[in-house]
Amino acid sequence: MHDISGLFPAHENLGAISVERAVAELRAGRPVVLAEATGRLLVYPAEQLDKTSAETLERIGGARLILSMQRLERLGVARDAPGLIALPRIDLDRIAALIMDEEARIDAPVVHPIPAEEAALDLLRLAQLLPAAILIKLDAPVAGVNEVAGCDIRAFRARKITSLRLIGRAPVPLEGATHSEIVVFRGGEGLRDQAAVIVGTPDLAGPVHVRLHSACLTGDLFGSLKCDCGDQLRHTAKFMAENGGGVILYLDQEGRGNGLSNKIRAYGLQAQGHDTYDADEILGFGLDQRRFGYAARMLDLLGVTRVRLMTNNPKKIEALRAAGLDVSDQRIQGRPTPQNIHYLATKRDRAGHLLDVDVPTAED
Ligand SMILES: Nc1nc2c(ncn2[C@@H]2O[C@H](COP(=O)(O)OP(=O)(O)OP(=O)(O)O)[C@@H](O)[C@H]2O)c(=O)[nH]1
Ligand SMILES: [Zn+2]
């Protein structure tokens, strides 16, 4: 027998790997078992339910639906924590309404979750699925299911920060910033690698212009007029090229961390008149899912300690300060368009973004 134990990563990574496996299973529409000292829980994503999975879950019995605090609030139940609803029957239409319908109201008692059940909800968020799962307490073994420990889910984000590694770097000339280098890191809590763009040759010992830019496929790549992302990205690179260089971290946080599918679902709700935050809340998400701890770690790996942060988002400033960086900030204006002006004003009014926007009134 060959001994291949040396091919497996160090012991401290195993927990994070088990979470990533669980995330892959859930995204593929497969169940996972969440193990805690209190017992074992079968977890199935509510958005993946179909006739066969519903029948199977109903046969096992004891199914409950866990929903986030934001979703419960939308369903007319004010709460400060997630909650569970018993599902004596797995009715596909009712569950679809409970997880996504704007008009649905709750018709059953809501129970407070235990930590294992809250960890299940967090797993769904990491998988960038809707934060809604069918849970069943298991009193008998189940075969062929991936198992994940609640403690590993809770430790996942911090572990991903410490395991972040620089994989490669190469010069890539950019429009408006021809002297640029792209550096790629593996890790972070998103589902892909993270990139940093080093524009010019910034003095890493002094305060460095830095932008934390969350991925926005629609804005950055397709030039969507609904947001200011693409414009800010290109403007920042050009500004840095003309002002002593800088570092742009391009973070795998599409849709404020909710993922592309949920962002497009939210855009669908926005097309019906909801603002950017209401649309996310209807889907069960909070104001902003993003955490910036791993961005601080990327800066650390690049040797940056003093930052002139190009942002209007106070949460980014706070997050880097909390991670020990010396941060001063600099406003960055995205181009207002008739299509994004309300989005910009909403970020200012509801999330405290430091934006200077003039929304035309009906009289203008
Ligand atoms: N969920 C959701 N995400 C959106 C929407 N519009 C844009 N986004 C995402 O919001 C994020 C924008 O992030 P950033 O460019 O870092 O900007 P910001 O948080 O507004 O802060 P600064 O630009 O630094 O002031 C990207 O991940 C976009 O994909 C939306 O309507 N709903
Ligand atoms: Zn955008």
UniProtKB/TrEMBL annotation:
Gene Ontology cellular component annotations, sorted alphabetically: cytosol
Residues bound to GTP: 211-215, 232, 254-256, 276, 311, 316
Swiss-Prot/TrEMBL keywords: GTP-binding, Hydrolase, Metal-binding, Nucleotide-binding, Riboflavin biosynthesis, Zinc
GO molecular function annotations of the record: GTP binding; GTP cyclohydrolase II activity; zinc ion binding
GO biological process, one term: riboflavin biosynthetic process
Domain GTP cyclohydrolase II: 170-330
Keyword Hydrolase: yes
Pfam families: GTP_cyclohydro2
Cofactor(s) the protein requires to work: Zn(2+)
Active site residues per record: 288 (proton acceptor), 290 (nucleophile)
Record has Nucleotide-binding as a keyword: yes
Reactions this protein catalyses: GTP + 4 H2O = 2,5-diamino-6-hydroxy-4-(5-phosphoribosylamino)-pyrimidine + formate + 2 phosphate + 3 H(+)
CDD domains in alphabetical order: GTP_cyclohydro2 (cd00641)
EC number: 3.5.4.25
Pathways per UniProt: Cofactor biosynthesis; riboflavin biosynthesis; 5-amino-6-(D-ribitylamino)uracil from GTP: step 1/4
Binding site for Zn(2+): 216, 227, 229
Record's cofactor remark: Binds 1 zinc ion per subunit.
InterPro entries: GTP_cyclohydro_II (IPR032677), RibA (IPR000926), RibA-like_sf (IPR036144)
HAMAP family in alphabetical order: RibA (MF_00179)
Family: Belongs to the GTP cyclohydrolase II family.
Main function: Catalyzes the conversion of GTP to 2,5-diamino-6-ribosylamino-4(3H)-pyrimidinone 5'-phosphate (DARP), formate and pyrophosphate.
Name of this protein: GTP cyclohydrolase-2
Recorded name of the encoding gene: ribA
